[in-house]
Amino acid sequence: MTGAHHLYVHLPFCAHRCGYCDFVTVVGWDHHHGAYVDALLTELELERDLLGGVETVFLGGGTPTVTEPAALARLLAGLPHAGETTIEANPETVTPDLAALLREHGVNRVSLGAQSFQPHLLEMLERRARPEDVRAAVWTLREAGFDNVSLDLIYGIPGQSAADLERDLDEAIALEPEHLSCYELEAKPGTRFTHAHGEELERQADAMEDYFERVVEVLTGAGYRWYETANFCRADDARDLRAHHNLGYWLGRDYLGIGVGAVSTVAGARWRNAPSLPRYLAAVQGGERPQRELEPLDGATQARERILLGLRLDEPLPLAGLGAALDHDALARLTRQGLVAAAHDTLALTRRGRFLGGGVTADLLV
Amino acid sequence: MDQDKIRNFSIIAHIDHGKSTLADRILQLTDTVADRDMKEQLLDSMELERERGITIKAQAVRVLWKGHQLNLIDTPGHVDFTYEVSRSLQACEGALLVVDAAQGIEAQTLANAYLAIENNLEIVPVVNKIDLPQADPDGAAAEVADLIGDDADNVLRISAKTGLGVEAVLDAIVERIPAPDGEAEAPARALIFDSSYDQYRGVVAFVRVVDGRFETRDALRAMAQGTRFEAEELGFLTPVRRPVKTLEAGEVGYVITGLKDVSKLRAGDTLTAEKRPAAEPVPGYKEVKPMVFAGLFPTDSDEYPELRDALERLKLNDGALFYEPETSQALGFGFRCGFLGLLHMEIVRERLEREFDLDLIVTAPTVAYRAQARPGGDWIEVHNPADMPNELEAVEEPFIKSSIIVPKEYVGAVMELCNERRGSFDHMEYLSEERVHLVYELPLGEIVLDFYDQLKSRTRGYASFDYDMAGFRPGHLVRVDVLVAGEPVDALSLIIHREFAYERGKLLVERLRKEIPRQFFDVAIQAAIGARIIARETVKAKRKDVLAKCYGGDISRKRKLLEKQKKGKKRMKQVGGVEVPQEAFLAVLNLDERK
Questions:
Q1: Residues of chain A found within 8 Å of residue B558, distances taken between Cβ atoms
Q2: N- to C-terminal Cα distance for chain B?
């Protein structure tokens, strides 16, 4: 295997920065979309040698779909062709024109940031979309011919009752998405949201156990496969509807990330582009690589990551080469406790173990 | 010196009533210490003593006043050191009884005054701080006079701070306190009233020569313990050491022994010279035994060797400190330490933390119990609740006779507290119209946790408290164990009166439940007497513990999070397969103290 087969492209632009967000985003740089796309393509050119046959491309943000259409089209045209090309979109940005543009330029999967179908919860999250925008976006994409749509849902929003959660899940299922990602709202340090609602999130932590169980029950009951801690895909005999780009991360494969703040992991090294947009532009326009933070990954660290990522999946983790990274006492104990199922050369979490995956994994690591 | 010209005396005073200030003034007035060398409160040589305003180690200073040799023998000022105080008093013929003009007599003053009277000391009453605006010299003088059966006119009124009246105190020492009357030609006998450790010269004994004379290079023997050594140097303190060739009957001074173990020369023992030994020791020696015990553990288990070294060094200067290694499943390696009382424990703990920079976990203090496993079987002494046999024929616990002085409006509150703590009323008396002296017998075990704090808070700080050991008595005591997932947590076992066992057990398990983080399985927390469970709580199993999302951009962060989590788990203590943070034990132990 030579080179990374997975390419991530970061588009930082947003119409509004949501209070809970801690990604690299910028608001109000509307006149720089073209320049930024140029820079992305330059950086891609600089790193071309790191790429092998590209299998997946993922355009994440930010809100990639607020990028000015001509610039977005130019970017898509300049990216390598891949079997799966995903773009993240906010529902209110999905117009028939946008859908057509995406289709035309090889995008075959759209991940919609729906988050919720309850107006008061969307407002709490500072999302601009209304519930009807979410539904409309899905239909627009369907009409444009997209047969692989994913919805993001967030649970644990302050003020969200158990009944609200049931309604959100029902609404999402009714739209028949191929894929669903369900995240518990995290109080990320330093965000406005944590400042305003952190204490409330802590108070409701116990209730979140029920919510998580409910999410898994309802979605698996509706025929979705719980293939990763927070991800579900429709079971389909003809197609593997898992997010193949993300699967690359979870299987420990190399990936190249381009754009401001993007992370790459290639051949035992990880680096993160600096998060400042002006500096990124200045460096790349000058033909230089952007400033980067480098993190070498030694063998033991790579092994630990393989375990922590691999155990998020529903398929057993092959243990070849990972023995030294495992705490075998903990493994025996967790097996006795029915949280881990070990075969002679694989390891998997039991259903209950998956609900406790973070703590169980911490225990398993040396 | 001719014994007629010698006066040996102590100062008896409550904390903060001015003992050290008066001592300083005496040193200045007699030109013993030049003003420029005057370090505030010279007698209290340890930093901790100065800060707490108490004197822990007795020492003796010689001053000259109008042709007389006055030896001021300092006494430890706290309840835990009653025996040491009594030995210091035994070395004197008189005592200054110093009372704060604003505060009047306190329980501790009373206890020490009684000790002085028992030792047939001439008491010179002094009311101090008469310069303070809130002073009531007449009231205080009347209380003191009443206590010692003297005329209020004989009570000296001074301000040690300003020096007012201090010369009269020196004159009164010469005039009122009798001279020693030892037999100068009898075989040499000296009472040891204190000892300390000099890292270069070994144990230094502080002595009062009773009869005969001691000479440098004499072969000496401590009569009770049988310790033999050579008097490497004799001398007295001014307060620096002044060597002399001989110490004679009536004199007070020090003996440098070269011994390496301070416990070989205990206060109360008698020194005699081998060349012409005395037939009988000075009466009154007894072996002081620690009555309060607690486990001391380093917070960081790597500090165990440092803790051991520190205890060894403290022990050099503190013959009453007892320690032996203890291993606790919950707290690791540490020491079970025995103390004379609560203050002694607090002092040792503070010195360990301050002078040796150690971070300590101290388990709930307990007392020495006597237990008999079978009828007619041997009695064993139990210093650690975890060592108390499960099946018991009989248990005895130490009792104290306590003396409590309070303004009369708090008598009811104090009686209520004493009754709650299984006290039995002995008697009470009015010291004045306002103040009452209550005497109760109480189990020491009821005192060690928080009795003193409770007493203070229920009397708004007005109560003063003192006690003396009153021997062992049978009690309805049981051992309560705390079990986590079926396994006892040794550090939390306690011995308690049967009547309080249920309530305390319930409290402990409730608190522990709050402190133990949820695990992957239900964890039972129980309190038990033997095999009988008396309280139970459950820490419900965690049902969710996941990192919500993990993509290419945050793998490093999530990995570090898990690595940190794992590291934290490694630091936890395993009890019954349950991970318990050390802080949980600490919280439970501390809460006990605060309750």
A1: 308
A2: 57
Contact B520 A301 (CB under 8 A): no
CA distance A226 to chain B (A): 14
Q: Are B543 and A351 in contact (CB under 8 A)?
A: no
Measure the CA–CA gap between B473 and B51, rounded to whole angstroms.
37
Residues of A in Cβ contact (< 8 Å) with B521: 337
Q: Chain A residues with CB inside 8 Å of B553's CB?
A: 23, 257, 261-263, 272
SS3 category, B272 = strand
B570 touches chain A (CB under 8 A): no
pLDDT of residue B113: 87
Chain B partners of A256 at a C-beta cutoff of 8 Å? none
- Burial class of residue B221 in the structure, from the number of CB atoms within 10 Å of its CB (0-12 exposed, 13-18 middle, 19+ buried): middle
Position B148 scores a pLDDT of 87
- Stated as kind and residue range, the H or E segment containing B211 is strand B202-211
CA B275 to chain centre: 38
- With CA atoms as reference, report the closest residue to B254 among B277, B238, B278: B238
**pLDDT band (50, 70, 90) for residue B35:** low
Residue A232 sits at φ, ψ, to 5 deg, of: -135, 140
Stretch B416-431: mean pLDDT = 94
Q: What is the pLDDT of residue B593?
A: 45
Task: Please give the Cα distance from A119 to B241 (Å, whole number).
Answer: 87
Q: Which tens digit of pLDDT belongs to each residue from B200-231?
A: 888 999 999 999 999 999 999 999 999 999 99
Min distance A60 CA to chain B CA atoms (Å): 11
Report pLDDT digits (tens) over B294-339.
Answer: 999 998 888 999 999 999 888 877 778 899 999 887 788 999 999 9
Q: Specify the residue for token string 């495992």.
A: A326
Helices (H), B326-398: 342-355
The answer for B 495-554 residues in CB contact with A (under 8 A) is 520-521, 542-553
- Alpha-carbon gap: A184 to the closest alpha carbon of chain B (Å): 6
pTM: predicted TM-score of the whole model, two decimal places: 0.68
* pLDDT of B289 over the 70 cut: yes
Nearest to B559 among A208, A304, A354 (CB): A304
Q: Which residues of A touch B559 (CB under 8 A)?
A: 301, 304-305, 308
Report whether B290 contacts B320 (CB < 8 A): yes
Domains and CATH numbers, chain A: 4-249 (3.80.30.20), 317-364 (no CATH)
Rounded Cα distance between B291 and B307, Å, is 22
CB contact under 8 A, B547 and A365: no
Contact B548 A270 (CB under 8 A): no
Find chain B residues with C-beta within 8 A of A350's C-beta. Answer: none
State how beta strands B252-256 and B332-339 pair: unpaired
Name the DSSP class of A326.
B
Burial of A40 (0-12, 13-18, 19+ CB in 10 A): buried
Integer CA distances (angstroms), A275 to A259, A295, B58, B440, B550, in order: 9, 16, 69, 74, 19
pLDDT by residue (tens digit) across B368-402? 999 998 888 889 999 988 888 877 789 999 999 99
**CA dist., res. B595 & res. B494, Å (int):** 16
Give contacts of A270 with chain B, Cβ < 8 Å: 555-556
Q: For A105-118, what is each residue's pLDDT tens digit?
A: 999 999 999 999 99
Cβ contacts below 8 Å, chain A against chain B, sum to: 101
Distances (CA, A) of A195 to A27, A201, B220: 21, 11, 76
Q: How far is CA B185 from CA B91, B188, B221, B252, B278, in A?
A: 19, 8, 19, 17, 11
Mutate to test the interface with A, among B521, B545, B554, B572 (most CBs of A within 10 A): B545
